[in-house]
Design goal:
Elements: E1 20-21, H1 22-29, H2 33-41, E2 48-49, E3 55-57, H3 59-73, H4 78-107
Antiparallel strand pairs: 1-3, 2-3
Helix pairs in contact: 3-4
């Protein structure tokens, strides 16, 4: 008998699991599929594709899209909104890494 993992992989808990169709994602964000396609064209989010070629979005991608929509709703052009969200995401990652390094330095 092969040993089983102590914790089953649960794709519903995975922030990066492409669980949402384009239609469902658009409904959840209160936007249109065209808006989501535009975010892809501006390289803000790149949805995975199902075997049938349909776009599938993760929760993380939906949070990114929601932030872009917020900026667009405030009057920011979509190109600028995408760039702002990308920079915000990069800054958040840099701050996380910085904090991690600072914590490691304090422990050493």
């Amino acid at each position: 008998m092969t040993p089983r993992s102590t914790r089953p992989v649960d794709s519903l808990d995975d922030d990066d699991y492409p669980a949402f169709t384009m239609g469902r994602a658009a409904d959840m964000l209160g936007t249109t599929p065209a808006f989501l396609r535009a975010l892809g064209e501006h390289r803000l989010i790149t949805p995975l594709r199902s075997e049938g070629g349909h776009r599938r979005y993760s929760r993380y991608q939906l949070r990114i899209a929601a932030r872009a929509r917020e900026l667009v709703d405030q009057g920011t052009p979509i190109e600028a909104a995408c760039r702002i969200v990308i920079l915000e995401d990069q800054l958040e990652e840099a701050q996380r890494i910085n904090e991690e390094l600072r914590t490691r330095g304090a422990v050493s």
